[in-house]
Design goal:
The chain has about 425 residues and is α+β, with helices and mostly antiparallel strands. It contains six helices and 17 strands. Strands 5-6-17-8-13-14-15 form a seven-stranded antiparallel beta sheet, with no helix packed on it. The protein has a six-stranded antiparallel beta sheet with strand order 7-16-9-10-11-12, with no helix packed on it. It is elongated, with a radius of gyration of 47 Å. The termini are far apart. The N terminus is likely disordered.
Length: about 425
């Protein structure tokens, strides 16, 4: 009995499975497969692939375009010349291979996009965890600081109350002694009065008074004790010193002329800087800013805490903060943490901004005349304060410092004829 021939649909399924297996076997080497399915004319994956009599494959449209522009029909790869223009037929098997390859390539790209987004989620979670730990450290540090202050206040309070108590005891004792003395004087006066009554009937009373002048004179009286407030003053002074020690880490700063832009003019003591109309003839060294009117402090810091104050009174534009040592100093500079700057500033006389990326507008109740800058290197904290109103302006938290940071000053360009300097101010403690 003769075997029946396989159906057409079964043959198609079998052929597609074979093609699919071939693509799977080459999936681990996408580069070679792409080269095999690449048209040498358009350098892209085949579209409607056809084969020449010499065995090379091309896009049908690419090959027709080549032959339409040429008098001879040559193979674009091996240059074999065909005496008669071949009739081109689409290689359906190769077209299926190309289609499957495109589908697999698309799936691979989607999978890569998924993996990229999973990686971003992991990075965000990691950053959030680091930020959370940094916040917890900052909270613990703050709690510890104020716990120390509260203990200092409690100790001062206990000492002050004990001093007042001892003072009261001493005053009461002194009062009792004074009362006893006065009572004794009263008794003596009564006795003297009796003697005077007795002598009033005698003729020598005047002589008696001359002999005993104390009888006619009142006893000396003493003032009561006065309670001094010196104890309270000493206690408050001690508390002020404790607060100053905890909340201030002041440093002595000067501006570095080697970093100053040629348009900047520094004072002789290098505590003040302003913009001038004419540039100095200065050597273009790597440390110097050559485009933006900026200058760094001479002193840099790679550990611990430090605090300084800058007078900005009367200025319409300014930027103040800190910058890492490796910042770019040539050409136009964008001041933000990504470029190594942590700063706040004023624009157009009324627009206060934190120099983040992008900048954040700040709503301040009063116009700062003096700005305080506090840096905690290990905690990655940079905070700005209005010194006179004792109010917080802005803080960069959770930063990572890996090199020296330097105080940064930018007096900005002259606006409206006003050009007061930026001034490094001495820190003044209120008594």
């Amino acid at each position: 009995m003769a075997e029946s021939l396989p159906s057409s649909s079964k043959l198609k399924r079998t052929r597609r499975q074979s093609i699919d297996q071939m693509c799977q076997s080459l999936s681990s080497s996408q580069g070679p497969l792409f080269e095999e399915l690449q048209c040498s004319v358009c350098l892209d994956v085949f579209t409607d692939p056809v084969s020449t009599p010499c065995g090379h494959n091309f896009c049908k449209s690419c090959l027709n375009e080549c032959w339409d522009k040429s008098q001879n029909c040559n193979c674009p790869i091996c240059s074999e010349t065909f005496s008669k223009r071949p009739k081109l037929k689409i290689n359906t098997t190769l077209r299926q291979v190309v289609q499957l390859f495109k589908e697999r390539l698309s799936k691979s790209e989607v999978q890569q996009m998924i993996q990229d987004r999973i990686k971003k989620i992991q990075d965000i979670k990691h950053s959030a965890e680091l930020r959370k730990k940094s916040t917890e450290r900052e909270k613990a540090s703050t709690v510890g600081l104020f716990s120390d202050l509260l203990r200092s206040i409690e100790i001062c309070q206990a000492e002050l109350l004990e001093m007042i108590k001892e003072k009261q005891k001493a005053a009461e004792k002194q009062d009792e002694e004074l009362i006893q003395e006065l009572q004794q004087e009263i008794n003596e006066l009564k006795m003297s009065n009796s003697e005077l009554d007795h002598l009033s009937s005698t003729e020598d009373n005047l002589q008696h008074l001359e002999i005993n002048p104390s009888i006619g004179s009142p006893p000396h009286s003493r003032n009561g004790p006065e309670i001094s407030v010196e104890t309270l003053r000493r206690a408050l002074t001690q508390l002020q010193e404790t607060l100053d020690q905890k909340l201030s880490q002041t440093v002595e700063l000067t501006m570095d002329p080697d970093t100053a832009h040629p348009e900047l003019l520094l004072s002789d003591d290098r505590k003040q800087v302003r913009v001038q109309d004419v540039e100095h003839e200065l050597p273009d060294i790597p440390e110097r800013f050559d485009y933006c009117p900026d200058v760094l402090a001479k002193e840099g810091f790679s550990a611990g805490r430090f605090y300084f104050e800058v007078q900005v009174k009367g200025k319409t534009d300014w930027v103040v903060g800190v910058a890492r040592e490796s910042i770019n100093r040539k050409g136009e500079i964008t001041v933000n943490p990504q470029n190594g700057f942590w700063a706040v500033g004023l624009r157009n006389e009324s627009e206060y901004k934190a120099c983040t990326g992008p900048a954040v507008s700040l709503s301040l109740r009063v116009k700062p005349q003096k700005v305080g800058v506090f840096v905690d290197y290990e905690e990655g904290l940079v905070s700005f304060y209005d010194v006179e109103s004792r109010s917080h302006i802005y803080s960069f938290i959770g930063q990572s410092f890996t090199e020296k940071v330097y105080p940064f000053f930018s007096p900005e360009v002259i606006e409206g004829g006003q050009n007061p300097p930026l001034i490094i101010s001495p820190v003044i403690y209120n008594d």
